[in-house]
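Limitations

Structures in this collection are predictions, not experimental determinations, and the ligand pose is part of the prediction. Treat each record accordingly. The example that follows, with pyridoxal-5'-phosphate as the small molecule, is included so readers can see exactly what is and is not provided: the inputs are given verbatim, and the output is the predicted complex.
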Amino acid sequence: MTPLDTARIRADFPVLATHQRGRLPAYLDSACTTLRPEPVTRAIAERARAGAGCPGRAYHRLGREATATLEEAREAVRAFLDAGRAEEVVFVRGATEALNLVASGLPLRPGDTVLVTGIEHNSNLLPWQRLARRSAARLRVHRIDVATGFDPAAFARDLDPSVRVVAIPHVSNLCGIELPVADVCEAAHRVGAVVVVDGAQAVGTRPVSVRALGADFYALSFHKMMGPGGIGALYGRADLLDRLEPLLLGGNTVDDATYESPTLAPVPARLEAGVPAADLLAGVVAAIRWVGALDPAAVRAHLLDLNRAATVALLALPRVSLIGPPDPAARGGIVNFHVRGVPSRDLALLLDDREAVMVRHGKQCVHAWYRAEGVPDSVRASFAVYNTLDEVERLTRVVRSVASMIG
Ligand code: PLP
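Predicted complex:
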């Protein structure tokens, strides 16, 4: 394994060379959204400059070119996720929309159970809460002790035959742990449940094969993997997508319509209402290419180096607690922590002000977990391939000064 050439990688991100009050920014918020490398922004601009055209419906030259971009992107995502067929990839605005699409379109009956974990992002909890309310299904929450991680045997005990849907994160945005998705899918399929995987935090930091995982649905956002904002994808097994009720209806979703009713188009068009975003799709293709050029083992080693340095320094401080397992190898690129007595917002502002270190503060869109655990909030630093040990040192220096000031 050749280590990542961080200097070369950073050259693709001009914002990292743009001073902020005399300091270079230390962007440690990639779990929220990654920066976009130059080839991605260039691909979007070039596609836009080349002209517009409605993909899939205009047959003039510009329309045909836009259609080619849509098809290229669909095939690129299929290959990236190792899906069987391009039609199993549905373009949406992001993981949130993908999860809403599944939760609004699955037929459930009163008494059916949806099983989720206790560490779901709001986007993989609220849509299921609503589905349960509307269909008189039950929502069961499988609580996870984040310090010790996911326990497959305990999870299996919650999988009774009433469970029709299992919704889990592939990687948690709360604590960075990776769930054994393949094992969960196998156990869920044994009771006849479908598994909906929130892959927002997994793609881009490790290879994903939806076929090897056995996932029935897999949701992702490209802005979390160096791609453009406002676009994501839902992978769905072909037979399940065919039965999924569309979330939105309108242009693109029909083969024909009368004043009374439509004849819906086959998937994926049936689930992709409106004109597809060709400019963004060009950026998606470029992002997949950019991420695909990195050696996954080198990415993992780099994130571990950064996370280890952050973890060792933070755990040595008074008043600091980590959310998640103490071992950085179990947390990918995420270190989520709180400093007792210091509101996370104040710490985040101080980090930005003193060292141009950008982190996420608050309840990290996992409000239910914070409420249940009585943890008020936290600061989450999250690393990507463009980050350096020097940036981690700037993070821990500020936290050290704050913790020792009040400790
Ligand atoms: N799921 C997880 C685990 C996330 O971290 C996020 C984003 O923060 C989402 C879902 C929602 O992604 P988006 O806002 O791009 O739809």
